[in-house]
Design brief:
The protein contains 14 helices and five strands. It is an alpha/beta fold.
């Protein structure tokens, strides 16, 4: 056979494959949508600003005051004035550390500030008034930023207040400073013992992401691939219920996902020193809930996909946005506003948030009730829609 005929046959085979690909409208659409998603995510996911804006912070003023009034009240008023000018924080009232800790576990705030009961007494006695910054250790990037901004703000407020007092004492205009001291100092306190780190933040998210990816990539092979090679037809003519086929495949992918997820998490604990602050039983239940929430979506996509390649393409197109926009690797608060809105409709966001609250913050069932409800509802809706479609796709 001549070289010309070899190239001619190769051209016909190439043309045949291209025609086959073009007959699937879904694959043609995903051919454009998937790279578009990637460009949008890479271009906009990283924060363009290094400052805080409207970050929810709890403020607890426990200062009892002294003979000349409460300096804690003056501090809070000064902080509110600075915040009105800068718009850095969205201040929420709180009673104390436990109240702030509960608000952080529920996801209502990103940190807190406490003016202790002896604040006025310390300053009037010639000591520095300690202001306590409470950090959210499940989000070390945001916590570090909040700590730096609050520390600079408190330092600036203290310097300004000291300079004003010196000028007033010496009868000088308020804008002329002869000397300044530091009446305020900052103490940082986490909601749980230990220092936050990136591995502590990312490990729970990766655990849920691995479970999601295992299901989303395993189901196309378990269903669509068997459609392609014809072995699914053998199961369909066997004397078993169609639901048995669905459950068997789902159970296999569930075991695979849980094994992968817990293996990753075990390595994070052993190698990177990740500490589980919450209940191990709750971690296991959240993994099962994550499996439940994504099984229906995997079955649904596989049901209307004509080939394994098509199903895999759709799965990858859905997985990539969830991987990067669900707060697994980067804090959602650092993303642009419209990207945060997209994150709020992705189920992996709530799975990662719930897992992070339990593992990092030691949260209980009440603190993750919202995330659990959303995942349960999403999983149920997906299964209700997917199972009938899968039965029809199998020709029942």
């Amino acid at each position: 056979m001549g070289v010309g005929r070899i190239f001619a046959h190769s051209g016909w085979i190439c043309w045949k494959d291209l025609l086959e690909f073009s007959r699937s409208k879904i694959r043609l659409v995903m051919l454009v949508v998937m790279p578009l998603f990637m460009m949008v995510m890479v271009g906009f996911i990283f924060p363009s600003e290094d400052s805080l804006q409207d970050t929810p912070i709890a403020l607890a003023n426990q200062d009892l005051g002294g003979d000349k009034g409460s300096l804690g009240n003056a501090f809070v008023t000064q902080l509110e004035t600075v915040n009105e000018q800068t718009g850095m924080f969205e201040l929420h009232p709180a009673s104390g550390f436990d109240d702030i800790k509960d608000m952080i576990q529920k996801g209502d705030i990103s940190g807190g500030l406490i003016v202790p009961a002896n604040f006025t007494k310390d300053i009037q006695s010639g000591r520095q008034g300690v202001v306590v910054i409470v950090t959210d250790q499940s989000n070390p990037q945001i916590s570090s930023m909040i700590q730096q901004v609050l520390s600079r703000t408190v330092e600036s407020m203290g310097t300004r207040a000291a300079a004003m007092n010196v000028n007033m004492t010496m009868g000088l205009p308020a804008n002329e400073s002869l000397a300044s001291v530091m009446p305020y100092t900052v103490e940082v306190r986490g909601t749980v013992p230990g220092d936050p780190n990136y591995f502590q933040f990312v490990a729970p998210g990766i655990m849920t992401m691995v479970v999601m990816m295992s299901l989303m990539t395993g189901l196309p092979h378990a269903i669509s691939y068997e459609k392609d090679i014809g072995t699914l037809d053998g199961m369909l003519i066997a004397p078993i219920n169609r639901m048995s086929i669905i459950l068997g495949k789902v159970m296999a992918q569930t075991v695979r996902g849980m094994v992968q997820g817990f293996l990753i998490f075990l390595l994070a604990v052993l190698i990177f020193g990740v500490v589980v602050q919450g209940s191990i039983l709750m971690v296991i239940l959240l993994v099962l809930l994550t499996v439940y929430s994504f099984v229906g979506l995997g079955i649904l996509i596989t049901s209307f996909s004509d080939r394994e390649e098509t199903a895999s393409m759709v799965m990858m197109t859905l997985m990539f946005p969830m991987m990067f926009l669900s707060g697994v690797f980067f804090p959602i608060q650092q993303m642009p506003g419209f990207m945060q809105y997209i994150s709020s409709v992705l189920p992996l966001t709530y799975a990662a948030q719930a897992m992070r609250k339990v593992v990092v913050l030691g949260a209980g069932p009440q603190a993750i009730l919202t995330e659990v409800t959303i995942l349960a509802v999403f999983g149920t809706v997906m299964l209700v829609v997917a199972v009938p479609m899968f039965k029809r796709a199998m020709g029942r």
